[in-house]
Amino acid sequence: MAETFVKQLLNGCHRAGLVEGRVLVGLSGGPDSVALVRGLLQLRDTLNLELMAAHLNHELRGGESREDEEWCRQFCEQFHVPLKVERRDISTFARDKQIGIEEAARRARHDFLIEAARESGCHAIALAHHADDQAETILHHVLRGTGLRGLAGMKWERALDEQLKLVRPMLGIRRSEIEVALREWKQDSRMDSTNSETHYTRNRLRHELIPMLERDFNPQVTEAILSLGRQAEESDRLIRSLAKELLRAALIETATRSCRINKLAFVDKPRHLVREAFVQLWRQQDWPRQQMNFNQWDRLAGIALGEAEGGTFPGPIDVKRVRRELHLTRR
Predict the structure, then answer these.
(1) Looking at residue 70, which CATH number applies to its domain?
(2) What pTM was computed for the model?
(3) DSSP 209
């Protein structure tokens, strides 16, 4: 029922911190983003929200892309939602950056939504990812190789800067529940023809792997994956909190390009906690983390626990033991 969907969305908004202020909804015209706009329209007085929407025409499907754009214009006009539209040549962008179309489209959407939100004075960008998307994301992370953070999947709320955050208030709602609400509202939407093309990894997960797992192994596999994700998120949150405390106790001195750490603070501490303390340090120092993988973090933990004298890490960042201290310097 649509009423159930709206109640779930209200709970999701509270969990994602989507209360009060101006919010920009990423609108593709597909069922999920359309349901998000319709639901937020019913909740805007309750949550004291001012709604805006933004649509990016990727120019990947010719006339179909233009029809999506026009449909979004008419939809927002019907419900009196201000809409910002932009067109970008994703194929050229992907070729220039030497990345795949999926990644190019994701980056372009991300950049466009941030630009649109800042220009409009929004405090939040609301995305329509739902529970089935979350399960696909977690499964994708598992197949690529991941840790606790990857098992936790997408976050309900993520700060982009001090004034803007990304929220996903539908992460607790299943795709089938969205479809029920749209039918009850008699609300149409657009369907992206590329969503059925299985040469995209995400589509293969959705149309081939997950149905096979449901059929041959566990009919409730999506719920099982989501349960694993929730447990991973809770564990990861606890580890991060403990790691921050450990880092505070260990830090002796910090500057923009260097810091000193009391390595005795790591004695008898669990190795995974020491690894996470360094992750927190890198984040605090705003040092590059893109090239830091599990092996790199584990190597750092080994230095802190006395297994090696030092080493050099991406940045480059030099780490060396000096008596009872660790000295870290970014060149």
Answers:
(1) 3.40.50.620
(2) 0.88
(3) I
